[in-house]
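Dear support,

I submitted the protein below through the web form. The confirmation email said the job was done, but the results page showed an empty box. After a refresh the structure appeared. I'm attaching both so you can tell me whether what I see now is the final result or a partial one.
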Amino acid sequence: MDQQFNYLKKLPDESGNLIRGLQLIQATEGYVSDEAIRAAAEYFHQTPVEVEGVLTFYAQFKRVKPGRFKIAVCDGTACHIKGAPLIQEWIRQAIGVAPGETDAEGRFSVEAVACLGCCSLAPVMSINGRVYGKLDRRELNRILKEYKDK
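What the results page shows now:
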């Protein structure tokens, strides 16, 4: 097994621990790479195809390395009614990234999430956990420019 994934040894190597192992990989690496699939398959006595099957079954796993700035756009009821689809479109226009994607430079990742728990600030997004609310197009573009310049 690749030394990079030695932390899997925290778990017993039984096949029943595969999901826990994949969760550990994602928590450590930010996503599950092809190399991680091979390491998990070897460690948990599975084939890479079986591991890939688990990854594609569960929506919690990401197969693309996230960008430096992780944008989460709330699409809960309050945010949706107050313009979350527009926020997602404006982000796509401003940085070329739609939910579920990462830009080519590895700077931005965007995902739509069910709720950020800030309904009174709708529409809301967060970037690396910092929440921005009551968004309009001008404020959104200002925020994105700030992160582009970092």
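Response: this is the final, complete result; the empty box was a page-load delay. The longest strand covers residues 69-74.
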